[in-house]
Every structure is written in C-alpha cells, then in structure tokens.
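pasting for the record
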Amino acid sequence: MSDFNFTSFNKITSTIKEKLSSVVLATKTLKLQRVSKTSNNRKLVISTNFLDLINLPEGTTVTETVLASNQGIEVIKATSTEKNTKKIYGRNYKNRTTTRESQIDMRSQTKINDAFGDANEVRVIFTHEKVVIKPIFEPSSKITDQSLSLNIHNEDGLYVGILAAIRVIKQNMFAKITSTIDENFSESQEFILFSMQLRRLGYNLSIDNNNLTAIHPHAKEQNLNNESLTNKHISTKQFEDTNTNINNNNISFNTKQPLSSFVVCTAGVDIYGMEKQGFNVSSILSYRPPESRDFSKSTSKTNNNTIIKHNDKTESNIIVAAINTNEPKHLFNEDIFAFNPNNYKDILGEHNFVHISLECSDFSNLKTIEERMRFIESLESTRDMFFYSIDIIESMNAPTALVENVKAFTSSVESKLFNYRLKQLGYAIQTQTLNALDHQGLSNRERSFTFATKLTTGFSFPEKTISEVNAWSEAVEPYVNELRDVTHTSSVKKAITSGRLRTIKEGGNTSPCLTKSQQRQAKDSVYAMIGDKYFMPSINMMKKIMGLDEGFDLSFVSKELSSEIIGQSVCLSMHKQIMIKIRSHIESYITSLNLNQPKRTFNELLFANF
C-alpha cells in the first residue's frame, strides 16, 4: 500500500477504524521471500493497514502458534501473563515520513518450515485481534497418477468443450493429457484460451501431427508411458451431460436482504453508484496487479548489485472501494485468478447480486495486436478471466449477475463461451452495449453489459434518452482554476502530430472517453482546449465526466492512482440506469413472493425482516 498519500499516520488509522468498523473479515495473499540472495532461509513480512483494522496496531503484543504441520500459523493478541510473545512493528517508507504501516515480520525457520512446508505463497486471514496464515500449495501438489485422453466437442462452430475440459482437469490434475486436435481447433481463439488455462496450471504443451500433449513437470518422476498409469478417456460432451447442472433453475434467494451484493474487480466507483440505488454491498474482491512501472531499479553503492524495489499498490483499490462502501463486511484482497469462493462459502452467505468488471485492456483497441500476443505468451493477458468469473457465480449460485467490459467483448469468443456456460447453469442472458451519451453521460464511453438472471420476472436494459447535459459547462468551467497548462509538453506535441489528440472544446456538449493512463499524458489522453492552449483535467473534472460527485473519497491515494481508478471506471450516469432496472427486476420478484400477503411497498418488504 505504499502508493498511499496520507497527510498523517493518525488520519489513516482513525479513518480505517471509523469507516471500516463493519468489516468482520479481510484476506490477502503474499509470497514468502528469501532473507537474502545468498540464503535459502525464508521470511514472511505482512505490512498492511488491515492490522489496524482488526485492532492489532503497532506496539501490540502477540503470540505466534504453529497450527499443525503444513497447516499455517495463528497470530493472536497476547494476554499480560503469556510468555514467548513478540510485538507488531511499524514500517516507514523512505521519503514518506508520514506514511507508516503496522507490520508482522516472521523469520523463525523452524516455524516457517513447519507451518508452510514448501509453499511459496500464503493466504492471510484477518479477523478481530487474530491473524491466521495458511499455506497455498501449487496445483502441482495435487498431481494424480492418472492420464487423460480428451475429445473436445464443438457446437455451432464454437469449441464449447474447453469449458468442460478445464473443469475436469482442475478437479483431477492429471499427470498427462493428450488430445487429437483438428486444424480448425488448433488455429481457433478457443485453443488459445484452452492453452492459457493449461499453462496457468503448470502444464508444458507440445503439438505433433495434430496431437496435443500436456505434461506436468511435477509428474516427470513417474513413468508416464507405463501401462500402470490409470488412463481416462472422456468426451467433453459426455462430461457435460453427466456432470453439470444443465438448465439448473434452482434459485437461492436472500429474502432478508434482497439487494445483498458481492462486487468483484472494483476500485469502488460501481459500488458508490450501486449503493445510491439501495444495493447493499457486503463483500468485495479486489486486487490491483503489479505493473512494470511499479518496480524501480537502482545500483547498490556497496557491491554494485542491482536493487529492485516494488512500489506495492496491490491493496490500493480495495481500500478505496471499502472506504467508499457503506458497511462492507468482507474484504478479499486476492487476485481473481487465485481466488477460490468455495473457501468462504460459510462466511459469504447468500448474495442476490454479483457485479463483476472484467479487465478490459486485452479487448481494448488501445493495445496493439503484438502487445496482446506478447501478453498471452507471458500469461499476463486477462482474456481468460471469464473462467474465474464463472467459478464465482456458479459457486455462489447468485440469482442475478452483471458483467461489464468494453464494447469489443460482446462479439468475442470469450463472451460467447461465458454466456454458454451461464445458460447451462440455468440463467437467462441478455447482453447489450450502451453508450453513456445515450444515458445522460458526459463522455462517449461505450460498455458491454451482460445480465444473467434466474428470477422469473422480466428484465430489459434502459432505453436511450435525449441528452440534457453539457460537458463544458458541467465538467470544465467549474474546475478551470484546477487545470494545468500542458501545451508546451512533448506529449501534447506528439499527440497533435500523430492525429491522436483528443479534446473537449469550449462549449462542447461531450467529452472523449477517459483512459486509465490519462494522468501520464499518453497519446490518447483527453485535454480541455481553451483558446489555442491545452489543459490537463483535474481529478475533480475527471470525476464529473464519469458521473461521480465529490463525495467519492480519493484523498488517500496519489493523483496518478486516482486518475487510473476514474479513467477505467464505468460512467455512473449510465450505470445508474442499469442499476435501477436490476433493482426493479429484483423488486418484482420479491413482490411476486408476497402475492398472497397484504400489499406493501418494496421498501417495506426490504426492511420487513430487520
């Protein structure tokens, strides 16, 4: 969380305790680190404001207990009579004397080896005055002595069999997988997604004469050609018919909290809009992945070794989201690629609505084809994120879900596979691309929305409206004194010569679409043009363009991170209209459950059980 820009340590501590007092559980995942480059000894450093949240601030005396071999460690607040205690430390960031975090530092090799075994990562679970740290073992630790011969089926030109194939592989973790693939499949987008999923599980892939072989390196010690290796032969069509809940119309509905919501991949903008429409967001999953610019290199003055420092921003989005949520209860600071909702089924309870914003960069035209392919090769691509969204929706059996992405997602293979699986699970699906300008928005931001429901009442996306707004008078003029003249910068000059300069001109009704890289003056950044000069929008101006009011709190993060959060968010003017429609859909359903009861308003029904 080193990107926080706190005016004082006391401010963040008091704000966390005040605004996040409703939180009963928080989690994060961390890597075990080497003590030094020349040592195999490991350490675990937990530096986070979550410790203050659960009343384990700097200076607190705690005990550390190994739960059992390979089962983790428990850290709890010590009593005054206990021995073998240690204290929670504090950490200052260099050149940021007002930024301080509470910290647990574990270096006992006996405890670490006993509690975590050969795990490289741990899951940290924070509850009141207690921290439980569990090892996360690689999928390779579950490799079976089985091999799999796979026949992936095709339906209407779509290789939907990869969905079933990945499910059965994750469930069994075969030592070896073989499949005959035709030329159409090997050159398809589905094959790219299938390959990405196998590589994420650790498999090494090879293709020879239309035969795909995937071998897990942890299975090399086994004789993979030995006849004693159990071999399964399955058709993915057969697997789907016998092992999935096709047309599953079972509805799990929380009547006590009809608008209970779980929001995934968020920095809080969507939550802020949802709660203004009455939705109750109790659970949040958010993780800001490390990016190349988060790392800096320097040379040691003592031995000339390269020093790499990580400006850790992984908690930033979830803290901003949580602070802008009324009463969050569960904060999961975990990467969606590693998140297992089944770990928290008893904790989460029933949510009637799941809101997911899939990462859009690999579908955006701002990334070149070469960049997209490079990201696929390195597994930095997020194209296969929809697999994990399906897992969350399926595990929670939520009656309604909304998935948001850029326009290009609508026509993608990923979208078609996503919709196919949800239909199998019993959901009715509607997908539509909306433009913010058609829904009282100030920018031409287009977004694809997929709404899935098991409820029996009708749903439709909002109709277009005639715009009654003006971007210049509403978003530029009120903040003109905050704008920075950047006419002289090389970035603006390059944008002009390349023809990619995008501006809001004086009196203009609309704004071009903001981007995540807005504050860094990328070629596609948006500027306010006053006369013959170009001005960089302020954070308040950007908020207004995206339909946010000044109540959305970004005071704890840097200007660059604030710009990123706003630049990649949904336009709230458009989002509001969708939330009204979804609320009406849920309202109609709960009203239908009370047809034989005296007529009451939805708000009366909503609060009837409190």
